[in-house]
Amino acid sequence: MVDRGAFDVSSASGRTLLFSIPGRERKETGKMSGRRAALKAVDWLAFAERVPPNQRAMFNGLKTRSDAIAARLRSLPETPAPIDWSYYKSAVANLALVEEFEKKFTALQIPEPVDTQTSKIDTQEQEANKSAVAYVEASKIRIAQYEKELEKLKNMIPFDQMTIEDLNETFPETKLDKEKYPYWPHKPIADL
């Protein structure tokens, strides 16, 4: 069994470990039941810090349901109580039936469910990472454009000292086309 790792999220208060992420493999340090691991998988304080105020009620409902399920899991024993076959052999008249049940019970192997969702989640995570990288790159381009425009605004003549010619030179989109539209407002009527 491989420990699947964790998504490490640091908050302003220094808390980490918001939730587990499949695909982050580490060496196995010890065997822990899935039930006990599930109880420790969510740092609710770090999670609550990231919940917007308009979604607080949904978050509280999720936390309540999760706490109820966790309490039910904690109330159950780690392993089921063993069956006392000797008692049943002495109490049941048909000994062959008890021995058949015991043989079938000991031969019973319940397989672990096959994980069909981790690969889909990993694919979605990779797509989200690619999308995030593309968004960051596009944002850097927009930031450069905005910084260039900001520099232009910082270096221009103050508005109270500008003439119409200065305004049209600084902001070409404000220039009226008197040749194409000789009558006032010197713009197409549709643009008004």
UniProtKB/TrEMBL annotation:
Lineage: Eukaryota, Metazoa, Chordata, Craniata, Vertebrata
Subcellular location, record wording: Mitochondrion inner membrane
Protein name, as recorded: ATP synthase subunit d, mitochondrial
Gene Ontology terms: cellular component: mitochondrial inner membrane; proton-transporting ATP synthase complex
Keyword Membrane: yes
InterPro entries: ATP_synth_F0_dsu_mt, ATP_synth_F0_dsu_sf_mt
Entry's family note: Belongs to the ATPase d subunit family.
GO terms of molecular function: proton transmembrane transporter activity
Annotated Pfam families: Mt_ATP-synt_D
Function: Mitochondrial membrane ATP synthase (F(1)F(0) ATP synthase or Complex V) produces ATP from ADP in the presence of a proton gradient across the membrane which is generated by electron transport complexes of the respiratory chain. F-type ATPases consist of two structural domains, F(1) - containing the extramembraneous catalytic core, and F(0) - containing the membrane proton channel, linked together by a central stalk and a peripheral stalk. During catalysis, ATP synthesis in the catalytic domain of F(1) is coupled via a rotary mechanism of the central stalk subunits to proton translocation.
One biological process term in Gene Ontology: proton motive force-driven ATP synthesis
Keywords: CF(0), Hydrogen ion transport, Ion transport, Membrane, Mitochondrion, Mitochondrion inner membrane, Transport
Ion transport as UniProt keyword: yes
